[in-house]
């Protein structure tokens, strides 16, 4: 799930650059931060830590 958000952040950054809009970098930051945290917890943590992020048991 984290890598999907990182992919979306890259896509939104490319679209923001093409459109020459600074406001387009807000989705990039949000998607990247969510993706980075999820990927980091997923790689270094366990299933319980990941499920806590998504509020699932």
From TrEMBL:
Q: Which UniProt keywords apply?
A: Membrane, Transmembrane, Transmembrane helix
- TM regions (residue ranges): 26-46
**Highest taxon, organism lineage:** Bacteria
The protein's name: Uncharacterized protein
